[in-house]
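Reading is simple: each integer encodes one residue's backbone shape. An example follows:

___
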Amino acid sequence: MTEPIKTRASSREKGMAVLISAIMMFFTLGTVGLAIDGGLAYLVKGRLMASVDAAALGAARGLNLGDDVATANAAATASATRFFNANFPSGFMGTNAALTTVTPNFTQLQTAGVANGVLQVDVAGGVTAPTYFMRIFNIPNIRVTATGTATRRTLVMMLILDVSGSMGSRNTSVGTIPTSLPAGSSSCEAMVYSSIQFLNYFSPYDYVGVTTFSGDASIAYTASTNYKKSGSTGAAYAIANLNCGGSTNTTPALELSYTAIKNVGLKLAMNEIALFTDGVANTVTGAFPLRTQKDTRFSPAPPAYTISPPPSNVLLLHSDPRNPFTWTPTTQITFPADQAGTYPGNSNSYTAAQRTAIAGGAANKFGIAAMLPLTTKQYSAYTAATQTI
């Protein structure tokens, strides 16, 4: 009969399993703790990123408040904080509200060293999240940060204000900024009041100018970022000093405004023209040069009449600064016999109806007393001559 072989463990090997398990528990606990605390920090990070994005949008929107850049920046910072707090509640996931930070930064972007018309708003947010397992490694909390970015295109806008006679007269005195708009106010008064109020909707980072038109057009306020300032440096002062009268000549105001926007020179800006008017134009400014040589390249020779070079200021409306009944210009168009005497400038050129109207002191229709409208026959004869030479 055989007996089983008995083995005796070395005394040095006793308790090794406990020791190894203890050591492994230390690393296992660290790994598990890192996973749990890291996961919680990741949740905080996700909420923080959404919050700073909202804050950046809120800050860009808040830049419209304030009369200067410093005030606008302060308003935008307050707006960013409100948007952040609305999306990241105080103490979210155990974060320390006292250590939460929201810091906006405003940068005007450039291209090749020149401002391009884009304002970048960066909002940096930071929160302190607690740890639960990592405390045993003397890490009681984790700092979590994120940055949100929004861009805002600078506005370059020209207000075109109709100050023609059809708008009526000011109800308040010229130079006064209206504080209200009572019922029955004239269109001119309403335009002044409304356009001044309109200025409050834009940012001190924007450029706003004013163009006016009646019989002609002019720049009343050059596009500037100072348009919200009080006194003579602001656009409200220029608008308050407007009054209405004269004809309606819209086209040159559009051209002036377009040129003014180009002169600001912000390539990526949002360029706008806002037109305040009560109706269509009744006046046009233009030069209509006459050809002084015959052009037979694409048509037969013209009829048997000639033309001499006219004065440089001849328009389809005859401008006669002297006595329209006696002055005879040195250069005239010679028409066929059946149309003789129909060109304005001959001493007998005006019709009986025209003579009667002028003699009776009838008001001119074009804002200039020396401008006389052509009759249908005069116009036909004049254009027929100019179009065939």
